[in-house]
Queue: 3 jobs
Job 1
Amino acid sequence: MTSLRPLPLQVVASLKTAAAQLENNKVLVGFDGFVDNILHAVKTRESASKYTRMERMTDFAERISSAAGLSANMEMVVQMQKLGGNGPIMANALGALGSAVTYIGNLGQGTVHPVFSEFATTAKVHSIAEPGVTDAIEFDDGKLMFGKHESLREVNWSNLLKHVPEKQLVKIFSQSSFIAMVNWTMLTQMKGIFQKVASVIAPQLTGPKRILFFDLADPEKRSAEDIREALKQISKFEKHFRVVLGLNLRESYQVGEVLGLEHPGESQVDVTSHALRLRELLDIDTVVVHPTQFAAAANEHGATCVEGPYTPKPKITTGAGDHFNAGFCTGLILGLDLAQSLQVGVATSGYYVRNAKSPKISDLSKFLKTL
């Protein structure tokens, strides 16, 4: 029987036992790592301590355009320096929600970079290289991310095994109910990692299928052929795992184009139908698409959509999608249905952008009661 309570309150009831369920739940996330500098672009400077920021991306674009053929001095103000990368942000959020996290990625060579020090006290981390660096200029209507990716070349199968031998890696995979391999776009050696996980690790796993989550992470700069090959690899993992592909709206368009789909509209109905079609073509367990103001997902039982707690004045936007992914996947880990998992996802993201920190289950329950 369908509950008469609003969806957020249904989820609050479902989360009452979540802390106990997640306490001994082990998850594995990899393989990137970034130091994120969150910046505001200065529009006007009034004094040494007071300025007006550029609130919209068009302000920034106009300033650059007006300087074409000349030159310009653009001032940035650092709001915070924090751990970054799709993997660390998602893993940190999963840990805050209660899962026991193992993280493999480039968090520092020899010693963990200070921005990951707190994370390293709550998660088991295996660092394989220096982190990349991202300068994220945030506006009210989006963000521009400028990355320095040289160290990401070290994220490859050979270097991974130097730090986490095969026997240990198989054990970590075996003990994890949930695995996430994210940021395919920036990790140019991920194809080889996918191949080895599929051919070396997966055949050694026993028991129920584990959830395996993928986030391509803005694949526009990769060729259509590269994206198509990655999607083929992801589909093949369904033999050994319950494969979940997470996409923001723009990424869903890019994947759809590669698969030969027409560009859908942006309505809830259009995006939900698009998620369903992507899932059918990829033949995987679940596809989830999360625009800014709602989220949609499709699995073998059908497709559904949930509105999000959108705010036009977020404290932070960098990492919002990773928090959605962590919340949605936590719902799947807990065995919640598609709609409830989407609700956990949008609430986790909604809490994060308002508070600039990852919620615990108790925070999430309180926030859901306000929706």
Job 2
Amino acid sequence: MRLKKPRLIVTFHTTTAAMGMEIACSRAGLPGRLIPVPREITAGCGMAWCAPPEAQADLEAFVTKENITTAGWYELTL
């Protein structure tokens, strides 16, 4: 069984925004990966960005700079 730990979950209104986040973060070397939206959260496109909670400030600044539209920011234990 995998050890559960806190995770930052960023949701999006569209699949295009989620995929844009993946491409932009990969190029910038920021942590995280795309995952299906956890059941505890509802989101329009069904995809979410999962990253360590300590990366939140960097990711918030990054999405603002890159003009990536997000639907919500959550911290869950996954």
Job 3
Amino acid sequence: MAWLVKEGQVVASLEIADSRSARRRGLLGRDSLDGAFLISPARSVHSFGMQFDLDVALVDSSGRVVAIRPLPRRRVVRPRRHVSAVVEARRGAFAKWQVQEGDVVEFRQ
């Protein structure tokens, strides 16, 4: 099991898309998500075929959250420079976890 960590504290369980096919598949075909889902490397994501709305955190190589964007179904998050990973979560999860733009997060296994 992996974890999404902020300031040394675990904020959520983390599923890692650790292969090319897992990154391509993402959350397609799922009807829920507990915790967060990491796609790396990635600079953008889409929600075509999704069954629920997401929030996405765009993260740079140092772990800084560059942006958090709502991602309704059938939409695309525009690619951002200097982003190396995308963390997906259910809509409202980042607010619940108190993860904001500018925060530094870690991905621990």
